[in-house]
# Entry
Amino acid sequence: MVRILFLTVMLTMAAGAGALAATDGPGNPGYGRGLANDICGECHIVSPDQEYSGKRLGPNLVERVRDPEITELALRSYLQTTHPVMPNIMLSQEQTDDIIAYLLTFKERAR
# Structure
């Protein structure tokens, strides 16, 4: 519960203005899907067809990113900040852009 609250607070603080929720920014959503599955999928739900398993420790990112306050800026801040409840994963700028581009596709589907 504390982990989910921490993630929610971090993403909300970084959200800033909702107008920054650009979905046409840099990054390749196709590559991002593969990266999200490989890097994040062990502990987070990162695709609508992903099954839950006993190792799900983090929030469902598909549902979380649909929150209007979760913007590209919020995701970028979250992915570039270390978290005590997560492994310290170092993403390149390109990987970060790709994962963000992929996650932002769920905003389009929610409309």
User: Anything to note?
Assistant: The chain has one domain: 2-15+28-110.
